[in-house]
Amino acid sequence: MTMTPLEISRFTETLCRKAPVIPVLVIEDAAHAAPLAEALIAGGLPVLEVTLRTPAALDAIAAMSGVPGGIVGAGTVLTPDDVRAAQDAGAQFAVSPGATDRLLDACEAAGLPILPGAATASEAMRLLERGYGVQKFFPASAIGGAPALKALGGPLPQVRFCPTGGIDTANAADYLALDNVLCVGGSWVAPRELVQKGEWAAITGLARQAAAL
Ligand SMILES: O=C(O)C(=O)C[C@H](O)[C@H](O)COP(=O)(O)O
Fold it and tell me: 82 to each of 62, 103, 128, how far by Cα in Å?
């Protein structure tokens, strides 16, 4: 079923309001997917983004989709093929570092809500013109961090963001304090080493801290 940009924006706004942090997950072994999802959900982070950057990503999305209480999406969605593959695997939403018309067309046609990325006023305006009032701000810290996002909020207060890229416990609160920030995305809640070692309780601890931000 197709979705309009407005319907997509409503969906992504609800998604971004579920918890202050969306974990960005790079999964190398699909066997880690279900326990990792359980650990993050137990810590209070139900919205999970699995980046399509590893061969295991689609299997990981499929495995995580079976975990109760979670909402699993695909990150690094770049092409219409990615949109199809993510949806087939069970992804309920897509996240992209930027946005192209081809990608947005594919998501709308497939009815896969997308959180499209913007890094400048012109990119944010272009998305807004098409009906996307909820956007990812990427790569957040490298392009000026919370002060840059606050400045964008002056002329563009109607755009709400999920900043991602270089965010961790030390700076997440600076972003979350802004009126135009709904939530932040970050990989810090699922460090590679803890995932490799299967230290799920430690990951639940990090999730709990993030959920309390
Ligand atoms: O490719 C995408 O769609 C992404 O979502 C990229 C991520 O935003 C960053 O890779 C997360 O950045 P860190 O939290 O600094 O590790």
Answer: 14, 9, 23
pLDDT at residue 52 in the model = 97
Q: Which of 13, 38, 49, 108 is catalytic?
A: 49
Q: What single letter denotes the amino acid at residue 165?
A: G
- Tell which one of 138, 167, 171, 175 to mutate to probe ligand 1, the residue whose CB is within 8 A of the most ligand atoms: 138
Quick: pLDDT tens for 154-164: 999 999 999 99
Q: Where are the domains of the chain?
A: 5-211
Angstrom distance (rounded) from CA 209 to CA 213: 7
Task: Return the ∠ at Cα 89 (arms to 185 and 17), rounded to 5°.
Answer: 30
Tell me the backbone φ, ψ of residue 107, rounded to 5 degrees: -65, -45
pTM: 0.96
Domain 5-211 sits in CATH at 3.20.20.70
User: Which residues make Cβ contacts (< 8 Å) with residue 81, sequence separation at least 6?
Assistant: none
**For 98-115, what is the HEC assignment?**
CCCHHHHHHHHHHCCCEE
pLDDT digits (tens, 9 = 90+) for 168-194: 999 999 999 999 999 999 999 999 999
